[in-house]
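Before a colleague's protein record goes any further, I have to sign it off. Would you go through it and say whether the fold makes sense for this chain? Take the sequence as given and treat only the tokens as open to question. The record follows directly below this note.
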Amino acid sequence: MKHATQWILSSLAALVVLGAMAESAAARRPNVVVILTDDQGWGDLSINGNTNLSTPHVDSLAAEGARLEHFYVCQVCAPTRAEFLTGRYYPRTGVSGVSRGEGRLNAEETTIADVFKSAGYATGAFGKWHNGTQPPLHPNQRGFDEYYGFTSGHWGHYFSPPLDHNGTRVRGRGFIVDDFTEHAIDFINDNQQQPFFCYLPLNTPHSPMMVPDAFYEKFKDADLAMRHRDPDREDLMMTRAALAMCENIDWNVGRVLKTLDELGLREETIVVYFSDNGPNSYRWNQGMKGKKGSLDEGGLRSPLFIRWPDHIRAGASIPQIAGAIDLLPTLADLANIDLKIDKPLDGTSLQPLLLNETTTWPSRMLFAAKKKEVSVRTQRFRLDSTGKLFDIDKDPGQHVDVSEEYPKAASELRRKAQLHAEEMNACFDKFSGRPFHVGYGPSTTLPARDGEPHGAIQRSAKAPNNSFFKNWTNVDDYIHWPIDVGQQGDYEAIVYYTCAAGNEGARITLSVAEVSVSQIVHEVFDPPLYDKSKERVENSHYFVKDFKPLPLGVFHLNKGSCELRLGAETMTGSGLIDVHSIDLILRTDSD
């Protein structure tokens, strides 16, 4: 009897332990890895029928998980990122475009990183942010413990460029996408013992079309079998470079997946893959109309693959329309996180579809807006921004307007589009003209992107995102930034400059109202532009070089909105300086 009693007690103890282990396993939340590519169209993957390239690692996510057949994002980069981060249509969030302050996500928005961090996750982002540079809009203030990348809309050079690591200027190592992936892998390794949310927003195949030789060799003289529906519009050099960049992305996706396997985290990790808009050039895209920047099907449809072994059925194909706005509520649901967001979401959780928990799904509309233009997608139709109606299932190329055949549908969608346009335009108006934050963190960078040149001063590139100011040839010319100072105090001002020989001796002044600091440019610093030999297209408009810090002094800034002006008091040569950015560092002994 004694032995029997001991056996029963031991068995009960074992059951308790097993029950606790099962409860712990059930309570353990999955890791999440989100990979977002930049300017990769729906057709830039072999799984979607493009035989010009091979993307086996990305394709495996669809084979081993679910693919959303009709997944939609925005027409350009920053809006899609804002919708992913918040679950809300981007105009509501303060974002209105991609440059000159248009890509700033309002500080009061709750991000997906905030949601996962509050649930105990380690959070990291590695790559192109494009939703704000200055605190409180920097990734480290938006829920990410770790950040490595660049916060601008695009970057001008892809080999060991200047980057941002948790708000500190650093230099990258090697090809930029490989570098971002390496940091993401390090983050996964460092946090393997706890749930982690890893956001890997890559910046290719966005231009400049720079890619390592090892990936480009295959394509440089390739005779491409799959072409754009209007081949005369296709730039083959651009296509070849984009395809090489997509194969590099695939290689890096393979590195991430291999890391998860080696750490035994495959079954515990949700992996999501999508792109931020349509292709950035005319190339094969299954005959869909439009590319990046367009509100047509080809400009908005993105691949979306999501893998979670033993939870999401391998090879599942989900036909229901969905969008970037759905990812925040979906991932929170899959991770069993209660959403506590004080702003209404536009997205809906796709968990029932992904976990095969429903056979019915309510009809819905997805809206895409660009200033006063709106396009609407239902399960069957697309109303384009001109009011034409297309039966997308039968006509993905949007060749035949069926408005007269389906007048009720056309009328209803036009009415909905008009209402959405009015609502979104009110948001655009509300948030336009905002000054740039200063003093909401210990240090603030104001890049040339956010400044306004006056006189003969010019930008180095047509696109402001990664430009610098040049051609400062008149002492009366200046640059200004509208700013909102969040904390009164003394600020050290630093300008990042270059100066050609013969122009040293000029005195540069930074001022706000009657307060100013100035310094003489004593040192010539005139480095060459970065090597562009890996640029695979002609007539590149990207120009990058190193800049040197010039401390200007310490001055006092009062709280509130004002204008920061960079000017000159004296000029000794044929010009002054080229300007990359201004740093304003709050002194710790300030009031």
